[in-house]
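Thread: Newbie trying to understand structure tokens

Hi all, I'm a second-year student working on a class project, and my supervisor (Dr. K.) asked me to get a predicted structure for one chain before our next meeting. I've only ever worked with sequences, so writing a 3D structure as a token string is new to me. If someone could post the tokens and maybe explain what I'm looking at, I'd be very grateful. Here's the chain:
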Amino acid sequence: MRTRLGICRRKLAFRAEEEALAAIARFGLPLRTYRCDRCRLIHLTSRTKGKRIPRPRPA
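---
Reply by user tm_fold:
Sure, no problem. This is what the structure looks like when written as tokens:
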């Protein structure tokens, strides 16, 4: 499903996934990141239906 341009413009956008993950930590909400097909930046979403939740990588 393609993101509508009006929705893309209203969302927070991050250049790096690390910035987006830091914002998620500050918000304390169950959010995930995705790369927008409109602006090619990183946005946050609460939608998880049908999405794989990435497992933490072993250190």
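A couple of things are worth pointing out once you decode it. DSSP finds two helices and two strands in the chain. Helices lie at 5-10, 17-27. Feel free to ask follow-ups in this thread.
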